């Protein structure tokens, strides 16, 4: 068992449509031509990076992992704290399952692994720019604070020296791929998780099939090559399964709309003239193309009815950016999404939701935030281009192709490959693509 290796590369926001071009590149083509593939994988709702990555390593939807958005509920104007820590995932992960079985694990900037030392032997925690602000000259201490493993600090230090400030793509991706490759060379962990985000960043800035996306795919191909070279250098190519997957697609949007403005004007939110919230009866936390509506008194039926009526009317008028309003019960039933919100708003696919509470309510896209960028996500998983899954190595049936899959099956498939037991998965291993 200890001679099995699995490297999982999550290429953020890669979609099936990208593979036509990717197949012309040396490393993507090596995986496409020698491995198995699921062309279109249904992701979870909301289709947001941190919730989906929690589901990829647990096989459970957001209602079970507890990671329902990228950010925690935060009504202040300051940047919201993200779900970052491994212990914020409420159920068993493939990292824990591997550790229980005596395997070694590594994660390089995989979302929600901060302070994850209990389950990650070689950890480069994913740290967002808001945590690095003002500490750009001392990022190593930030990495230590978030749980970077001491024995790989020299690797992280060298990566920082090479690639500098760490939030911008592709420097951040170069950084994490370097770290992962060096960890593979030095320690040959049984499970390695890596998460390059340049394709996602290019889509956000230039649109779903915008001008920068091809460049991002080319760079990603080079990083796949670097990771494959590390596997070869480590002498574990014959025992390594190499997976390339993605978390979600994106949809092109054309405007930013702030539905909290309308709730404030109807008296559900009280704020000062600067837009600082004093208190609220109902507040919408934006997740890009989705929004979670929180009530201050969730058990107050009268409040529930009046907010539902206002949101439903806004949706029916079709000018407020809202395609539909789900109740908490509806998203639980349909998507396994649950939390302490009362409603979920789905964007009309034309508008990204902003969080502001004072006018202007409608603004042009500014790319200042993933929620108001040209390409956007968070939407219902049925919509738009879909993420693929590819696997190459001793466990995968070469040439096996499935048209469709479900992202909740990824973690059980990893568990099957590693021969470990995953406790809380809702999905099941996809045996059709395995030997
Ligand atoms: Zn993502």
Q: Can I get a quick summary?
A:
The chain has 435 residues and is an alpha/beta fold.
Q: Could you explain the architecture of this structure?
A:
It is a single chain. Helix content is 32%, strand content 19%. By secondary structure, it is α/β, with parallel strands linked by helices. The strands form 5 sheets. Strands 4-3-5-1-6-18-2-19 form an 8-stranded mixed beta sheet, with helices on both faces. The protein has a 4-stranded antiparallel beta sheet with strand order 11-12-14-13. The protein has a 3-stranded mixed beta sheet with strand order 15-8-16, with no helix packed on it. Strand 9 (269-271) and strand 10 form a beta hairpin. The model has no long low-confidence stretch (mean pLDDT 96). The structure holds zinc ion (ZN). Zinc ion is lined by residues 12-13, 49, 200, 247-248.
User: Would you identify the CATH architecture of the largest domain?
Assistant: 3-Layer(aba) Sandwich
Q: Which CATH C-level class of the largest domain is it?
A: Alpha Beta
The largest pleated sheet is described as:
8 strands, mixed
Oligomeric state of the chains in view? single chain
Rg over CA atoms: 21 Å
Helix and strand composition category: alpha/beta
What number of structural domains do the residues give?
2
Report the helical percentage: 25-40%
CATH domain topology of the largest domain:
Alkaline Phosphatase, subunit A
Number of helices: 15
Could you name the CATH homologous superfamily of the largest domain?
Alkaline Phosphatase, subunit A
Terminal-residue CA separation: 16 Å
Output the strand order for the largest sheet. 4-3-5-1-6-18-2-19
């Amino acid at each position: 068992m200890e001679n099995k290796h699995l490297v999982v590369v999550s290429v953020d926001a890669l979609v099936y449509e990208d593979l036509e071009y990717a197949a012309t590149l040396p490393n993507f083509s090596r995986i496409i031509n020698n491995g198995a593939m699921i062309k279109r994988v249904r992701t979870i709702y909301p289709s947001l990076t941190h919730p989906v990555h929690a589901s990829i390593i647990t096989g459970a939807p957001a209602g079970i992992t507890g990671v329902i958005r990228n950010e925690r509920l935060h009504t202040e104007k300051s940047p919201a704290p993200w779900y970052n820590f491994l212990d914020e995932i409420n159920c068993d992960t493939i990292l824990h399952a591997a550790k229980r079985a005596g395997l070694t694990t590594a994660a390089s900037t995989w979302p929600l692994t901060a302070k994850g030392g209990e389950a990650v032997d070689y950890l480069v925690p994913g740290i967002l720019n808001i945590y690095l602000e003002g500490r750009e000259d001392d990022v190593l201490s930030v990495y230590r604070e978030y749980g970077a493993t001491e024995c790989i600090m020299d690797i992280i230090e060298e990566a920082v020296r090479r690639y500098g400030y760490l939030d911008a793509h592709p420097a951040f991706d170069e950084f994490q791929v370097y770290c992962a490759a060096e960890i593979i060379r030095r320690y040959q962990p049984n499970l390695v998780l890596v998460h390059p985000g340049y394709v996602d960043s290019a889509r956000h800035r230039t649109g779903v099939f915008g001008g920068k996306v091809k460049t991002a795919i080319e760079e990603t191909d080079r990083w796949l090559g670097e990771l494959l070279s590390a596997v070869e250098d480590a002498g574990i190519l014959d025992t390594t399964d190499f997976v390339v997957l993605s978390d979600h697609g994106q949809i092109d949007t054309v405007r930013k709309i702030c539905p909290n403005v309308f709730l404030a004007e109807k008296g559900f939110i009280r704020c000062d003239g600067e837009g600082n919230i004093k208190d609220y009866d109902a507040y919408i936390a934006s997740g890009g193309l989705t929004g979670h509506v929180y009530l201050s008194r969730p058990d107050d039926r009268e409040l529930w009815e009046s907010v539902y009526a206002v949101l439903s009317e806004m949706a029916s008028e079709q000018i407020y950016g809202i395609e539909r309003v789900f109740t908490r019960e509806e998203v639980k039933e349909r998507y396994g999404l649950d939390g302490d919100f009362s409603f979920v708003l789905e964007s009309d696919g034309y508008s990204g939701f902003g969080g502001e509470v004072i006018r202007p309510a409608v603004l042009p896209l500014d790319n200042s935030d993933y929620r108001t960028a040209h390409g956007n996500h968070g939407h219902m998983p049925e919509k738009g281009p879909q993420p693929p899954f590819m696997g190459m190595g001793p466990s995968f049936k070469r040439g096996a192709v499935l048209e469709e899959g479900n992202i909740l099956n990824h973690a059980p498939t990893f568990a099957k490959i590693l021969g470990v037991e995953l406790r809380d998965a809702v999905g099941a291993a996809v045996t059709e693509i395995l030997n």
